[in-house]
Amino acid sequence: MAAKKSLADQAYETIKTRILNLTYPPGMPLTEAMLTDALGMSRNPVRTALKMLQSEGLIVTDYYKSMTVKEITDNDIQEIYQLRELFEGAAFKLIFDSGRAEEYSYRIEAKLVQMCASAGNIYEWELADTNMHLEIVSIFENQRITKFYESNLSELIRMGLYSVKNGMRIEATNANLKKMIEFMRKNNYEKAFEILRNDHFIIGKDKALGWVE
């Protein structure tokens, strides 16, 4: 049983990673036969993994029981980015209003170090970027907001990868975050938030939607 569970976990992690990094893009049909061949496993662990991913909403089935990777619509992107701006905008303001701008500048900088180290791998970079955003909303100490991010984490990562693939430049984003941190240490909310808003709410959303300049 332990061996079967281990194989199921391996299948789950591999398939999930391939969905999140867009190796298996939204809308792609999936079959047990295809995945067992791709993973070099028997059907049982793959079937278990697929059930887990269906329960998470990453894989959907239609009336004929055909499986596909969950689509991400333009409306999904608009709604998620709207919620992110509401949460993170309020959180960023609270960081300054509570006198913790310098403290959070170092906390965000620690996440930025991970982003810079992952600049050559857009999936790893996007994971680090997501952790940076989680650091910002941690100021609320609100479990419900944390759960929102956790429940939408897969979508956030895939949308972020859309942004990069559609022209959002990792190096420029990292450089702008360094400037944002400098403004935080100077307690300059307006300049710091302008960078966060432009890079991560406006440009990020537009690129995820495929809007080009």
Automatic annotation (TrEMBL):
Coiled coil: none annotated. Gene3D superfamilies: GntR ligand-binding domain-like (1.20.120.530), Winged helix-like DNA-binding domain superfamily/Winged helix DNA-binding domain (1.10.10.10). The keyword Transcription regulation applies. This is GntR family transcriptional regulator. Residues 5-72 form the HTH gntR-type domain. The lineage of its organism: Bacteria, Bacillati, Bacillota, Clostridia, Lachnospirales. Keywords: DNA-binding, Transcription, Transcription regulation.
